[in-house]
Every structure is written in structure tokens, then in C-alpha cells.
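Need residues for this backbone.
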């Protein structure tokens, strides 16, 4: 029986080597769409574990679950990489309202990640609305001191690239408190990063920079519908009072882990290609799109390689990063360890843009490597993958960048992504099984091609074959 198994494996390997790239990609897509595991894994992460805030019990459960599932795949190595991460806890549900003309209007808010709490009984103050930091500096301390700064710059709706729209206004969320503190503000309310009009506040990370603790002020996001209500009310009554209460708390850093699995390369075991997503999420939903989808797609890449009979030349790793959302500790730790171990990472692919229909990839690479990528476009055409552009890759793989390697990011259709991003509706029911599986197959196909044809201008590495 053992001899028969070996013979069948050799025949499968020989068959893969004889196949054209079109044939191999077809095998990969067929495997993912008819025998995928990504949706099943995501179901467990989302519905059995839930939101995986960095440093939380759920994050630890996710570490143990994904490690166990990777071990079942029969990879050459599976291990945990320790990393210290921040622990921030939201506490009781936030409440807020504003009072105008003796009428109380309740609004939907949520604390921003990393914010301090309000005083025990909440915070009440007048509001000053601004669109950007330049307006703050013009208004100055005289008009801002003692007030709540309300940042109300919306995402730019006419930009087709929604991540550009997000990038165009996210600084008010991340650095809004730092800037408002300069002028004596007592709190910050930020319009949610959302292209849709709804009642859901969207959280996300914020920072106080190097400011001492006694200067920190509470910061919260307000839903797009309620941001519009507040803005309209301010036009009629500039002296209205806004009240909000939140109970969040920052604790000391705690120990967590990156989860790593590896298929060791047959020809270049000391050259690494990685695929990954971040295991942590925010706590309002269950983190299905951000970034449960990227996690399970990345896990499935290694499974699909094995199921398709592909024996990679390079060592292929899946890396499930911890703490992308509020610190990037996992990505930085992985790169730090790779440098300390003198590992050569020739290619890295990240999925952190949701589980929607894949459209293609963006690449951070040399012109020569990008020309190689463009030569593969026809292979992806049958799967309606058409977007191949130079640009960013991903936050977690970014620290691995060298002058010679290639970093890439999966680019799904992003039109609905910010409807769910960091909000309570980032849940399993919002993910389509087929779209998720198409993404896993698309990622596997790119890994296969880079592994087969290599990366240009990689420094020579001495290989030690077993």
C-alpha cells in the first residue's frame, strides 16, 4: 500500500510538471470552487469565536484554532511566533446625544480604538465643526478651547478607488485628537469612514502620539446619518451641547502570537514566499471581511497547492499576523525575526481588503518584475481578473520590503467594503462563499507563477538541500 501511494504521488507530480500554466490554474480554481475550505474556516472564526480584538481571549482562541487547522493540512512546519501586543477594552456600550432647542436627539457613536474613557458621568460641551486640520489652526485656541471638535470630512464619493477615498480622510480619525489637543479641545467626534448613509458608527485606531496621559481626550466615531444630523443642527444652533459617555480602558501589553505554517521548497528552501492576512479584528462585528477573509484565503493557498499536486521550488509560508489593527506588532515582529535569522524573502502577498470578488493585484516591485507579472495577464483573463497595477501591497508585509523583492496585495472589488469596515455589520453573512473561494484561487495562482518563474534580481542565496 505504501509503495502504491508513493507511485501515485509521483505520477501526480509528473502530471503537474507536464501541464501548461493554463491547466494548472484551471486545476487550482476547480479545487477552490468545488473543494474549498476557506468558507468553512471563516464560519468557525466568525460564528464560533467572533471579534478578535488584539490581546483579547477571542484573539487567543483564534490563534489556537488556526494553528490546529494548519496542522491538519500536513504542512512541513507549523509554529507560533510570540509577539507582545496592546490590550485595549471597549467596556460598556457608548451613549451620546445632543440637545438643541430643548430637544434631545440620540445619536450612534463608538469609541475609537486606543481612546481614553470620558469622565464617569460622561462629557458635555459645545461643538465646533471642522473639515480638516487647517481649519483648526485658523480657528485657534480662542474658539476651540473647552469644546468638542467634530471632524466631518466625508469620504470622497466620486473616487472609484474607494481605498483612495478612505486615505483621503482617515487622518482625522487617527490624528484628530492630537491636533485638537493643541487648541484646548476636551473631546473629539469623527464622522465614520463610510461611503454609505447609515446608523452604524465605524471604529478604528487613533493615536495621542507622544502626548502625556494627562493631556489625552476621549475620541469617538459617529455614524454618517447622525453626523449629518449634528451638522444640520449646528447650522441652526451653534451653541448646542453634545453629550457622550464611553468606558474604554488601555491595559499593559500582553503576549500573543503570529501563526505560521510552511511548505519547504524543493529547490530553494532558504528563499521564502509568504501569503498572509491579519488574525486580529475590531470588536463591533466578527471581523469576517476585515480580515477573517484574508486569513482563511491565505490558509487555503497552502492547502490548494497541496491538493493540486504542486510541489513548490521555494519555501511557501502562510503567516497570520496579530495586531494589524492597532499597532502592526505582528508584521513588524515577523520582519524583525526574518532579518535576525537572515532569511531571504523574495515574494510576499497580503489579503486585507475583504472577501469580495477578486479583481487583481497591486505590486510594489521593480519594473522588470512588473513586466513579468503583465506577461501573465492572459492566464487570469478566463477568471475575469484584469487589475494589475503598481502600487501598495499591505501593511503587514510592508516591513519585509527590500530593493529586490516583490510585495503584492490582493485587490477585490471594493465598492461595498467600507459599508462594513470596522463596524457591527462586518459579519459572516456579509461574505459570499463563491467570491471568497475565487479570491483564494487567485492568490494561489499568483503564488504558483512566482514560485515557478522566480523573482528577478534576487541576491544569490546558498541553498542547503535535505
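Answer:
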Amino acid at each position: 500500500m505504501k509503495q502504491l501511494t508513493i507511485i501515485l504521488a509521483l505520477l501526480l507530480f509528473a502530471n503537474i510538471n507536464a501541464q501548461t500554466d493554463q491547466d494548472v490554474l484551471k486545476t487550482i480554481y476547480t479545487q477552490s470552487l468545488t473543494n474549498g475550505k476557506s468558507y468553512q474556516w471563516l464560519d468557525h472564526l466568525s460564528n464560533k469565536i467572533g471579534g478578535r480584538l488584539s490581546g483579547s481571549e477571542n484573539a487567543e482562541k483564534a490563534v489556537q484554532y488556526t494553528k490546529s487547522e494548519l496542522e491538519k493540512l500536513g504542512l512541513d512546519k507549523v509554529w507560533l511566533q510570540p509577539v507582545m501586543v496592546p490590550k485595549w477594552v471597549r467596556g460598556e456600550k457608548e451613549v451620546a446625544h445632543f440637545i438643541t432647542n430643548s430637544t434631545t436627539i440620540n445619536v450612534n457613536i463608538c469609541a475609537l480604538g486606543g481612546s481614553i474613557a470620558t469622565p464617569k458621568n460622561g462629557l458635555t460641551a459645545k461643538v465646533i465643526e471642522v473639515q480638516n486640520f487647517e481649519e483648526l489652526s485658523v480657528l485657534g485656541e480662542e474658539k476651540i478651547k473647552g469644546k468638542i471638535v467634530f471632524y466631518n470630512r466625508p469620504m470622497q464619493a466620486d473616487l472609484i478607488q474607494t481605498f483612495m477615498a478612505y486615505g483621503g480622510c482617515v487622518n482625522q480619525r487617527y490624528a484628530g485628537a492630537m491636533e485638537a489637543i493643541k487648541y484646548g479641545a476636551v473631546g473629539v467626534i469623527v464622522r465614520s469612514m463610510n461611503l454609505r448613509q447609515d446608523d452604524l458608527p465605524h471604529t478604528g485606531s487613533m493615536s495621542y502620539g507622544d502626548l502625556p496621559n494627562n493631556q489625552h481626550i476621549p475620541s469617538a466615531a459617529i455614524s454618517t446619518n447622525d453626523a449629518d444630523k449634528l451638522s444640520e443642527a449646528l447650522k441652526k444652533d451653534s451653541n448646542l451641547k453634545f453629550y457622550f459617555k464611553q468606558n474604554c480602558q488601555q491595559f499593559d501589553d500582553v503576549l500573543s502570537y503570529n501563526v505560521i505554517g510552511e511548505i519547504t521548497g524543493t529547490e530553494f528552501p532558504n528563499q521564502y514566499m509568504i501569503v498572509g492576512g491579519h488574525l486580529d479584528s475590531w470588536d463591533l462585528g466578527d471581523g469576517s471581511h476585515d480580515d477573517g477573509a484574508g486569513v482563511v484565503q491565505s490558509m487555503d493557498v497552502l492547502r490548494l497547492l497541496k491538493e493540486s499536486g504542486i510541489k513548490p521550488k521555494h519555501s511557501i509560508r502562510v503567516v497570520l499576523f496579530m495586531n494589524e489593527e492597532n499597532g502592526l506588532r505582528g508584521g513588524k515582529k515577523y520582519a524583525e525575526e526574518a532579518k535576525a535569522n537572515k532569511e531571504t524573502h523574495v515574494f510576499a502577498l497580503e489579503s486585507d481588503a475583504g472577501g469580495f470578488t477578486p479583481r487583481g493585484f497591486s505590486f510594489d516591485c521593480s519594473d522588470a518584475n512588473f513586466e513579468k507579472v503583465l506577461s501573465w495577464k492572459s492566464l487570469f483573463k478566463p477568471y475575469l481578473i484584469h487589475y494589475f497595477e503598481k502600487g501598495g501591497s499591505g501593511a503587514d508585509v510592508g516591513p519585509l520590503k527590500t530593493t529586490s523583492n516583490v510585495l503584492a496585495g490582493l485587490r477585490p472589488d471594493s465598492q461595498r467594503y467600507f459599508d462594513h469596515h470596522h463596524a457591527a455589520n462586518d459579519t459572516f453573512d456579509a461574505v459570499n462563499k463563491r467570491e471568497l473561494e475565487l479570491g483564494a484561487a487567485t492568490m494561489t495562482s499568483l503564488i504558483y507563477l512566482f514560485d515557478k518563474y522566480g523573482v528577478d534580481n534576487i541576491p544569490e542565496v546558498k541553498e542547503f538541500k535535505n
